[in-house]
Amino acid sequence: MHDRSRAMSDLMASHRSIRAFESRDIDPAMLDEVLAQAFAGASSSGNLNMVSVVRTRSADGRQRLWELHKRQDMILQAPLVLTFCADTHRTRRWLAHRGARLNFGNLLGYHVAAFDAIIVAQTVALALESRGLGICYMGTTLHAMRGIADVLALPSHCLPVTSLVVGWPAEAPAARDRLPLRAWCHDEHYREPSEEDIERDYGPREARN
Q: What H or E segment, with its residue span, contains residue 129?
């Protein structure tokens, strides 16, 4: 296997969601470099780049996000929270500035921007992990979308879709199990799972948990 392929395989295999962090900072220059490279290396629909990322580093800012994210203490431990936003606002400002027909203020526009934001988030996550940092995705972002938008002063047509808590790991959790390839990868068309398939693929997970 090529060295780069091996390195990528090892990186993906080593992924863990980290929920305990050391109390030490992240070099701002390194963070800027990671974000810039990840943004440049992430696919974007139509190269519109309808993504914004808000960095929250202050203790007060993280405290406010802690309240919104169901008081998960890792937010207070880690030095950084990254909020990834589906941002059609900036593109709409560009269109208005050029006197072009406004667009992307609809559900399709939101989906395009949201999917781009998720692509950027995952690229950033891998880049951070490659530097030895730990991350944890915050599913609570969607539940607290309105409150997070207010705290981060997001304009209309700019909505948070996911967040990463980022810091230096203070734990080494075991790998979580995933569904086997046969359960979710389909050839040519969707294959409806039988009761036997469900039992085969989910039974062992139920027993372990």
A: helix 107-130
